[in-house]
Amino acid sequence: MAGNMKFVVVFGGDVENGYGNRVQPFDSTRKYKEGGVIGEEKQKQGHTTLKKILGLYEVLNVNIWRASLAELLGTAIQVFALDAIVIYTIQAETKTPNLVMSTLVAIIVTILLLATFPISDGHISPIVTFSAVFTGLCSITRAAIYILAQCLGGILGALALEAVVNTFSLGGCTLTIVTAGPQG
Question: What is the pTM of this model?
Fold first, then answer.
């Protein structure tokens, strides 16, 4: 610790209150923010509680439900758009379908991330939400709500695609509209 210690000379400031020219210790390993040292709050609070880890207080938070709605809509649009892009590029028989698909996928994903990031951190995928839980960026309750919304969004996106596309077959995977026959 003593090897990392450096000193910084501060010039100017409020001399009347003792903040004039003086030498202040500067530790290169600590990060500073306005109002104190980052991580200082955790040392004062002690261990985190199970309630905080699970995030049970977030169930009643309106912003979580607003964010989950953004995840639902973002995932629905993503499933619909990406599947429609694949169907279009296969049916159009372009000479470079991979280039067209990758370009359009990059554009769609970028637009969706820009739209959902301010609201819900732009997960738009259960695996991203799952990994956010393990890295500590997201509570378990928030992740469960997001994953439920993302699964519902995926189903809604697939149903919207099914409503638009009558029949499409791609290597054994057929998308058809199922209707009731004479036997029910």
Answer: 0.63
